[in-house]
Amino acid sequence: xxxxxxxxxxxxxxxxxxxxxxxxxxxxxxxxxxxxxxxxxxxxxxxxxxxxxxxxxxxxxxxxxxxxxxxxxxxxxxxxxxxxxxxxxxxxxxxxxxxxxxxxxxxxxxxx
Length: 112
Fold this sequence. Notes:
The protein contains four helices and five strands, in the order E-E-H-E-H-E-H-E-H. By secondary structure, it is an alpha/beta fold.
């Protein structure tokens, strides 16, 4: 079950979402979804392409910035900063637990 955790007024995170969760994310007012979980971390997780298809069908933007657990890079942070500058908010990020999505957001904000 998806648990949205608001980080700021314009950014929230959760653990892994399912395509069916996208409608709830849209109803909550989010305009962009960012996936920070690499495909295939576990065999049964939905691919980012499945979530992207659901997001686009719901009228949301979608971005994919895969971050290997415990190995966030400067390029990951720069990519996230660029996404935050480019997309319509509020933004919803997800990974396995929400930690990577929180950490990359905080790191991208520090670089501004």
